[in-house]
Design goal:
Blueprint lengths: L2 H20 L4 H13 L3 H15 L9 H7 L5 H8 L2
Length: 88
């Protein structure tokens, strides 16, 4: 891994570790931290963090490609409820 890429991965890891301290029950943060650990060859830690993510998620998978973006946006109103809100 090049030095530049290693620096980026290290920064991502530091940001994710900070985010986990702020929001420790967020399974998506643990999932992303596990991915970074895996990228760095920290297989045991990646496995532990993935297990933590799975436990916190409680069996509710997030659709692929919507991991952290889905969490940041939060629940979105359905079209039906959005239409009702506009008519008030």
């Amino acid at each position: 891994m090049s030095l530049l890429i290693q620096d980026i991965v290290d920064e991502a890891r530091a940001n994710l570790e900070r985010a986990v301290r702020i929001e420790p029950r967020n399974p998506l943060l643990w999932q992303e931290l596990a991915r970074v650990q895996l990228e760095q060859g920290q297989y045991r830690q990646a496995e532990n963090m993935a297990a933590k993510s799975n436990t916190l998620a409680g069996g509710r998978p997030v659709p692929a490609g919507q991991e952290l973006a889905h969490h940041r946006r939060g629940p979105q109103p359905s079209r039906r409820s959005a239409g009702r809100a506009g008519s008030l």
